[in-house]
Amino acid sequence: MGKILVIEDELSIQKMIEYDLRQLGETVVCASDGLKGYELAKTGEYSIIILDLMLPSMSGFEISKKLRTLSIRPHILMLTAMDEEINKIEGFDVGADDYVTKPFSPRELTARVKAVLRRQKDSVIQTGTLSYENIVIDLDSYTVKSDGEPVTLTLKEFELLKYFIVNKGKVLSRDQLLDYLWGYHYDGDSRVVDVHIFNLREKLPVLQAKMKTVRGIGYQLV
Ligand code: CA
Question: Cα(92) to centroid of ligand 1, in Å?
């Protein structure tokens, strides 16, 4: 995957973001100046750009607008000052994909970046078929077969099954699954995940033994 670019002139914030994202194991490059940031961004090497609004030499808006005229499509997460509603709206107009208002907690920013990374990694697999045991899922037609027989899943169940197969062997936490399926804006009960897992196990009996509950954490497809 591409690297993460942080364009932020407030060094304390820049260093905090850099530190937190490196903890995730990602490659992070920083710029403190708008123009320098833009020069780096337009190389297309970055899959995520964390972009401050008020920057010396070129604003976050200008950077975002200019990038959208190029053929590269990084995920742009804009940092805005609190309660600047107009900034948010303009930010989306110029092509920001998301925004975080300052002051933000490191945890919040990290959670959003993780969600984007997961989606980007997952979107690599969009076509063709995936199989697991006696299950075959067709990503083009959104159909699932078990021992060759069609099984009807809801869209969320389908996405969930696909996510487990792609991440086979990994323990997936309820929060991670919520992030993936409902986005980080979802404030509902994490038991909604349990309900979907229950349904998947009912519809695909092989999962009753293979989709393990990891107590206190989440689930694992073994
Ligand atoms: Ca600034």
Answer: 18
User: Average pLDDT of 70-77?
Assistant: 82
Between the CA of 201 and the centroid of ligand 1 the distance, in Å, is 50
- DSSP bridge pairs for 99: 78
Instruction: Tell me yes or no: is domain 126-221 CATH 1.25.40.10.
Output: no
All structural domains of the chain with their residue ranges: 3-123, 126-221
Is residue 192 exposed (0-12), middle (13-18) or buried (19+ Cβ within 10 Å)?
middle
Measure 7 CA to ligand 1 centroid, in angstroms.
9
How far apart are the C-alpha atoms of 112 and 119, rounded to whole Å? 11
Q: What is the pLDDT of residues 158-203, one digit of tens each?
A: 989 999 998 899 899 888 888 777 765 556 677 788 889 999 999 9
Q: How far is the CA of 140 from the centre of ligand 1 (A)?
A: 44
The CA distances from residue 113 to 18, 85, 158, 180, in Å, are: 12, 22, 24, 12
Q: What is the CATH number of domain 3-123?
A: 3.40.50.2300
CA 81 to ligand 1 center in whole angstroms:
9
